[in-house]
Amino acid sequence: MLLMATSMVLPVAVSLHYGDGAQYGLLVSGVIIAGAGLFMRNLLGHNATYEMQERESFWITSVVWLVVPLCGAIPYLFTGVLEDFTDAVFESVSGFTTTGSSVIIRPEGVPQGILVWRAITQWIGGLGLILFVIALQRRLSRGAQKLYSAEFSGTQQRKLHPHIARSVSRMWNIYTLITLVLIALLLLAGNTTLDSFCLALSTVSTGGFTTTQFGMSGFSDLTLTILTVFMFLSGVNVALLYNFFTLKWRRFKVNQEFLFYVVLFLFASLSCFVAFSVANGGFSVANLQFSFFHIASTISTCGFYTDSPAVWPLWPAVLTFVLILSGACAGSTGGGIKLRRLMTLFLYLRNYLTRMVHPNVVFTVKIDHKKVPGEYVNKIFGFIFLYICFIIGGAFLLTCCGSSIHEAFCLAASNISNLGPSPLINSLGASLDYAMMPVLSKWVLVILMLVGRLEIFALLAIVSPSYWKHK
Amino acid sequence: MKSSDIKAVHRFIGTYLIAEGGLMALCLIPALHFGDGTALPITLSAMFTLAIGVLLRQRYKAFHTIEDRRIAYLLVVMIWVVMSLFATLPFLTTGSTTSFTAAWFESMSGVTSCGATVFPEVGTLPASVLLWRSMTQWFGGYGIVLIVLALTPRLGINKFALYSAEASGADNTGRNTVRTVVTVRRTLAVYLTLTLAFIVALYLSGMQLWDAVNLTFTNISSGGFSVNTDSIASVTPLQQYILAAAMFFSGMNFTMLFLLFTFRWKQLGHKFDQLRAYIAVYLLAAAFVTIGLHWHSGIAWGDSIRLGVVQTVSALTTTGSVVADYTLWWTPLTFLLLMLAISGGMAGSTSGGLKIMRVLILLRNARAILRNRLHPNVVNPVRLNGKPISGHLANNVMVIFIVFGASLMLGVMGLMLCGVNPSESIGASVGCLTGYGPGLGASGGFGSYAHFPPAALWFSSFLMLMGRLECMTLIVLLLPRFWRR
What's the pTM value of the predicted model, to 2 decimals? Predict the structure, then answer.
């Protein structure tokens, strides 16, 4: 079965990439992971011929996302960069979920192989997410559930089943292409090979691991500008990018979510620019650049940070918090609630308010001129409810470990939306020093990252009693 | 907009202004009894309020029915705003505060039965003003609309539209005009009985009559004002437990209480889901707080049980009476109290927040969605009291949840923009929107909102109104399309 195969691609791909790490420890762990991957593939390959059901797909998705990060932790332990098991898992999960929260305080001090490995985990994580979404979409679209297929307007809308392999390869191609272009551009901008490679992988996957202690502040303006553009791109639905690059303009045009994304991005950046300029005395190019960089980093849940202006006015802080939760387009590598859901919500809310005044009017929610069934609206509501529940629950556990209330909320929100570090959180006075956190806090954040990445339901499904009841 | 609608609004507002003036006049009793020299200003305030009320009421003698739903929503909001406006009179005329902003904040906190105060030293206020604060909560806690409806059942207003605007949401099934009147009468009977009973109980436990009246007024209404600066921390443990019982009742559905008290248990049928959830949440939270206080902070069992029992019920029913400075407790405990305030008591009670009923529906709906993802072909209805609820109702609850959550977030951000620090913004936003009252930091515990900048005070009072009207009523007014034909 294809999904099995694709899921097994992850560990195999992991192992293939090990040539990069010159360290002995990396090689050993590479061999172990490759062995485990092959073993699992052989073991499972025999059973993988039957048609997959909901249950199995949840199971596989969750297991893949639990096992792969565990394997990913091995190199950190073997090379001795992180001695604590919790730290290693935290770093690995943070990579695979494209969050970018790091317990490595000084990335300059660790072997370069590890830096590359961190970047690769993010890249695979971002890719894995896309594959996961496609796989999900393929099956969901069979029934009445059309939301995901609506998200992936175009490419897979035709006969889906025979095309799944081709769709996957297209996604993969576009993802790789963007990465390669970005690496090339960064090299041209005068960065070292290592920096270019790591940053490109971090950006495209909206991860956010960096190669220096001080975030992005040591890099040239040109580099930051390039990254801004690519962070923005990585927040766009991948299928949309495919249509864009293959010049299928007609399909590209109709997507309302993208328009909303662009408008939101421009509005947020420009208003931040004005706010920063007013607060820091005078309009300057540096402020403009920072505003765009910061908003792109936040909205795509990438989580790079650079030198922020001296005075941090409240409006950007407020805006940042909203954007952390909203995230980018559905079907991108970014995290968060996703703009499409929020759009549906707003439209429904507007109808609801109108109905309060005119009770007999019938409305439908339409996105891209397609009706969204009421059942879907309910699901989106349910999703957001659970999302908020997890933030509250996570924040509660974090307070048990000694965080203050607003610190806990910031940490929970930025990790469940896979953002990672953000200058906002610093400006609120919360500590970003993940390395110093209690062990329990780290595990709470690990769970939040996974929950956010898997969009809650998959992980919740396998721990729910009713999953195990009906065998 | 019909002229008959406008007449009805005038008449309606006139009626309750008369009632408000009457209550204000009652504050003369402590003014004269304690001789604190506020008799004249109170008399003037009461007479002014009464005069405006009579004027409005006399202008249109005939009864009119409100036909436009928009007017009904507008009226509900106007009632709270005008009520709060006139409630500022005693504060201003007696010189308790010279700032209109502070007086407005205090009045709004009173009529929405929120309980946040701008007076750092409540104990120094004149007795008449103290009684007035308690009175606004007692009056507002039950819902001005309901009181007026009960007193004048034939006022000639479309009661259903109004009642649903007031208590929109979870429990809207099978209600009609006739039943509304019955409901209002019954609940009022319960309210008055409970008030009397607790005054007597507190008096018998050795409290001064003055304290007993004030504390009962503020606790039975989920309000939370006190006549002492240290809220209810200085009364005896027995009295604290009695007040906890009052708060517990204030978080229960009053129709349910009526049926329970009159032994009509059969009429309740199987409608125990909400009650069960309410009790379960309360017991679990109280146990957690008690154990947390004992194990983490090393407080003796007796005290930690008392603090846990009283402060938890105060948070869950969004009363906001403070028995100990909970902001100094172990952080998860403080956090839990805020979350309880967001959940709130039962639908149809005086408490604020989301209401347990909605939380229950939200959780069950999430479970149904999850099951649906696992087994797409199985029908998973959301059940309440054993009966499946419509998808429409589930969505309504979701909408209120989302809007409430968004308001909470906007509240935090708005307060930060007004210059309040992050932690206090969270506390104040929760405190004002849910009607709990005190928040975190200097505005939490025994503290006050005195140090808030004026903009933050205005914004907080807006949040109180928003929370009290369950967001939707106010938001619908802010829509441009609301005013279009």
Answer: 0.85
